[in-house]
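During the reporting period the student researcher (J.K.) took over the structure-prediction task from the postdoctoral fellow and processed the backlog of single-chain submissions. One of the processed entries is reproduced below for the supervisory committee.
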Amino acid sequence: MAVGHERKTARRKARPDVGGIEIEAEGVTIRVGRGADVAMIAAIVHALKASR
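J.K. obtained the following structure tokens:
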């Protein structure tokens, strides 16, 4: 492995989920679709706040 070599992954453009939400924080993107579990969304938000 070469020193200073960074692996870059191609990002594909996701088709927006009608009725979904997208959360971007510190280089991380979380997409939540319709019907997502409310407790799971709350846990994700809590984890993001705790990492500050």
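The committee noted the following: Residues 4 and 10 are 19 Å apart (CA to CA).
J.K. will present the remaining backlog at the next meeting.
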